[in-house]
Amino acid sequence: MELSPIAAIRWSDDEHGVRVLDQRFLPAAEVYRDLHAVDEICDAISTLAVRGAPAIGIAGAMGLALALDDPDVAGNDPLARLEQAAAQIRGTRPTAVNLGWALDRMLVVARSAGARKLARALRDEATRILEEDRAMCRRLGELGAELIADGARVLTHCNTGALATGGIGTALAAVYVAAEQGKRVHVYADETRPLLQGSRLTAWELERARIPVTLLVDGAAAALMGAGLVDACFVGADRIATNGDVANKVGTYGLAIVARRHDVPFYVVAPGSTFDPGTCRGEDIVIEERAADEVRRGFGAATAPDDVDVFNPAFDVTPAELITAIVSDRAIHRPPYAFGQAAA
Predict the structure, then answer these.
(1) Cα torsion at 90, 93, 99, 100 (round to 10°)?
(2) 233-255 burial by CB neighbour count: b if 16+ within 10 A, else e?
(3) Residue 14 has what pLDDT?
(4) How is the beta sheet containing 32-35 ordered, strand by strand?
(5) Residue 343's pLDDT is what?
(6) Active-site positions?
(7) Domain for residue 95, yes or no?
(8) Domain end (from 109, 136, 163)
(9) Same domain, 113 and 153
(10) What is the value of pTM for the model shown?
(11) Residue 344 pLDDT class (50, 70, 90 cuts)
């Protein structure tokens, strides 16, 4: 098979903005938007028009490259303006380490570039981050595909494909490369409550790639594994601690527990930029809490009383002991995990 690439994020045609595939409209419509200001980048990230740890890192880098021409970013000193914009963008999604990693990388370039070359240096660095992500996705796919047998039935959670990255994905990249190699793969996609990234995005993306996919509600995953219909679980990550604990879309932890109960291998696939050398354990990871109405009326219709209290974490933490292997763009890592200062 040959993949028809999805460009979830790139520079706009006029080269003065960032073009994103607005994922809030999927699967009903494929809507592209050009963003030209820091506020627009922040809104796109916080409202999940752009989502997925690698993709929001790219969006943050590109957004920072727009800051110098943004009249709403206050101040006359270019570096002060960039640091202000970086802080604003950084605050949109605190759990995904890729966002801070990309912004810090951009600021390093900004501090070393001369005033005349600053704008070009920022744009070039953001482009490098995008291009490196594309290459990283391919490497993740090639390594992850080694763990997928011909005829495998793979269970996944949330969306970890091209929509979440600048390339072909992280966990789904393994599926794509396995299919390219001629392996028969059937994907079971958790719908992923409450915002349904599995049903709205993963099912759409896999059908587009002509890879067999079956959608299930999150609560059916245990029954599916209990029936012996899953050969492996493949999930992504938003932050990986040095001991191997993994923060990912809420529901991942429960999936890992059930996989352990049924002896189903549980694989995490993520780029080196997702490994956080500054976080020792999962309990140290700040978990983003999202709005209650995402649960009470996520897509308009009321599905709960208007005033009921809601617990709505965007992520949960899966302990390292439940993870069979972690695939980075450099290697397949097996326990015991001990990721040091260098990204895995």
Answers:
(1) 50
(2) bbbbbbbbbbbbbbbbbbbbbbb
(3) 87
(4) 9-11, 18-21, 32-35
(5) 45
(6) 238
(7) yes
(8) 136
(9) no
(10) 0.93
(11) very low
